[in-house]
Design goal:
With 152 residues, the chain is an all-alpha fold. It contains 5 helices and no strands. Helix 1 crosses helix 5. It is 89% helix and 0% strand.
Length: 152
C-alpha cells in the first residue's frame, strides 16, 4: 500500500494510532471484573434447556414405544391384542421419530451457538489491551517509515 497510496496508508495508520490512544486512555478496570465465562454459560442456557426438554420427551416416547415393541414380540401375530397394539406402536414410533428429530435439531442449534460464541468464553480483557498496544506500535512504525521515506 505504501507504493500505491502512501497518503492513504498514513491516514489509516494515523486513525489507528488515534483510536489506540483513545482506548488506552480509558479506565478498563471495571472490565477486568466481568466474568465472561459466566456470560457465555448464561447465553447458552436457553439452548440447553430447550434441548433437555426435547430429550426428556424423546426419551419418554422411546420407552413407551420400546415397551410396546417388546410386548408385540411375545404376542401371536393373529391375536386381536397384537393387531390393536401394532397400530398404537406405529403411531408411537412416528411420535418418537419426530421428537427425536426435534431433539437432534435443538442439539445442533445449541452446538452451533456454542461454537459461534465460544470467543466470549475465552475473552480476557488483558488480551485486548495487549492487542491495542501492539496495534499502536505497528501504526507508529508505519507512520515513522512513511515519514522517513517521504520526508513528510
Amino acid at each position: 500500500m505504501f507504493h500505491d497510496d502512501a497518503r492513504l496508508l498514513m491516514d489509516i495508520s494515523s486513525s489507528l494510532l488515534s483510536e489506540a490512544d483513545t482506548f488506552l486512555s480509558l479506565d478498563i478496570a471495571g472490565l477486568q471484573t466481568v466474568d465472561f465465562e459466566e456470560i457465555f454459560k448464561e447465553h447458552l442456557k436457553p439452548f440447553e434447556t430447550k434441548y433437555d426438554a426435547a430429550r426428556d420427551i424423546a426419551t419418554g416416547l422411546w420407552r413407551e414405544y420400546s415397551a410396546m415393541s417388546n410386548r408385540l414380540d411375545f404376542l401371536p401375530l393373529d391375536s386381536d391384542e397384537y393387531m390393536s397394539l401394532d397400530k398404537d406402536y406405529d403411531r408411537k414410533k412416528q411420535e418418537y421419530d419426530e421428537a427425536h428429530a426435534r431433539m437432534n435439531h435443538l442439539y445442533n442449534e445449541w452446538q452451533q451457538e456454542r461454537e459461534l460464541t465460544f470467543c466470549v468464553y475465552c475473552f480476557k480483557p488483558i488480551f485486548l489491551a495487549v492487542l491495542v498496544e501492539r496495534l499502536k506500535g505497528i501504526s507508529e512504525s508505519i507512520i515513522s517509515d512513511i515519514r522517513r521515506k517521504n520526508n513528510i
